[in-house]
Amino acid sequence: MRKIQMVDLKGQYDGIKDQVNSSFQEVIENAAFINGPEVQQFQKDLEEYLQVKHVIPCANGTDALQIAMMGLDLKPGDEVITADFTFAATVEVIALLQLTPVLVDVEPDSFNIDPEAIKKAITPKTKAIVPVHLFGQAANMDAIMEIAKEHNLYVIEDNAQAIGGNYHFKNGETQKTGAIGHIGATSFFPSKNLGCYGDGGAIFTNDDDLAHTIRGIVNHGMYERYHHDVVGVNSRLDSLQAAVLRAKLPKLDSYNEARRKSANKYSEAFKGQEDIITPVLLDKEDTHVYHQYTLKIKNGKRDALAKHLQEKGIPFGIYYPIPLHKQKAYTDSRYNEADFPVTNQLVQEVLSLPMHTELDDEQIEYITATIKNFLDT
Ligand SMILES: Cc1ncc(COP(=O)(O)O)c(C=O)c1O
């Protein structure tokens, strides 16, 4: 059996080696390392794929979120609602910009922000909602967009874990996640579903004015060379990373399909296990791109199982072990434990299994058999 890895980037590289190597060579020969043709072409390719008017590449997903919020001209003290159960980047940038993060609970099945909790958290200071399509499954965008419309709030989608996923609206329309809210932000960190070979990120919007503002912000607030109209940052996707992303983008749908197939095999193998709740798909298959395949391990057995997997050399992840509202940097006297029953429970139960495009049946069989044997004895 091939060595089991949480993510197998080398195996994936073998399938795109010729294209990546030759475009790396070309970038080096042309020496257009920053803002070269590869970056511009990737931007266009991604606009076409996502069916969004503007893609603005930047240095990483955290920057993408920060720049999105800078673009909306939010003011210190404005409240931004996001999920308690997510990676810290989402809340970090809110705090960095001196906005007030308002963390709310998530739904037990999807792990995504709970629209009812959003409604309860809205105050006159609320300016934006940041749903995260966690682990690759789309958040409830019907409800979130409706709440935003009613209260005149911006929606910034954190699409770092869900690129390539679709959302099917109740009215029959389908849109790519990240292209639904006022702004979408994504990460091209190597292990993401569309990942480069270093850091990278992008911002998406259909709003021409916002796109113009953001293009200046990523480039030191310049709209004309050496004229700095707003405070900006330096956040660029480099040409080598864009070359990798251009090689991978045409394969993204098949990469996501491979993840779905592996997820279904895992779930099939765990059927009937009383200590395991497999990921719950809330809509059609294409609404989940399985950035992570995350189980809930019931009856207090998660930590013992984790230890066993470690002993057996099977990689796993606990995403995330601590609710954000309990992290030292983000505690706030306004939070009430009773408002976070789901997150408080999830942090004790979640366990993510190896998930990538190169998983094979033998590996899945070994992983699932090891888990079942342990829980059955
Ligand atoms: C949900 C979420 N948001 C934001 C980020 C930040 O992306 P990056 O690591 O590219 O800054 C990540 C990636 O780790 C993420 O998972």
Automatic annotation (TrEMBL):
Known InterPro entries for this protein?
DegT/StrS_aminotransferase, PyrdxlP-dep_Trfase, PyrdxlP-dep_Trfase_major, PyrdxlP-dep_Trfase_small
Keyword Ligase among UniProt keywords: no
Q: Which family does it belong to?
A: Belongs to the DegT/DnrJ/EryC1 family.
Positions bearing N6-(pyridoxal phosphate)lysine: K192
Identify a single GO molecular function assigned to this protein.
Answer: transaminase activity
Spell out the PANTHER family in the cross-references: TRANSAMINASE, UDP-2-ACETAMIDO-2-DEOXY-3-OXO-D-GLUCURONATE AMINOTRANSFERASE
Q: Which domain of life is it from?
A: Bacteria
- The active site annotation covers K192
Concerning Pfam families, the annotation shows:
DegT_DnrJ_EryC1
Tell me what this protein is called. Answer: dTDP-4-amino-4,6-dideoxygalactose transaminase
- Any Gene Ontology biological process: polysaccharide biosynthetic process
